[in-house]
């Protein structure tokens, strides 16, 4: 499992900064949020530190905390979408990923 660490910012106009790390669902100390979202326009309109579309910029901006990192599992980002074997494996554990999340966050778009 990969999780995204969304780094904090006091200024909403700062670029989105995040890192991806590997984690294990069997790690009892792992605390993360899972994001459920709608697909949207993939046109890039603001520079962030990974190649995400406008909807991701908005969603990550809303999710970003001001003073601390936030760990989030977002399948479109944390799963290698070009690796069909990985995608198939991750789809099989998606229910567990959502069950283990401390919260499910919903982003319906702007």
TrEMBL record:
Descriptive protein name: Heterokaryon incompatibility domain-containing protein
Domain Heterokaryon incompatibility: start-end pairs: 32-109
Superkingdom of this protein's organism: Eukaryota
Pfam families reported for this sequence: HET (PF06985)
Top-level taxonomy: Eukaryota, Fungi, Dikarya, Ascomycota, Pezizomycotina
Organism: Bipolaris victoriae (strain FI3) (Victoria blight of oats agent)
Record field: transmembrane: none
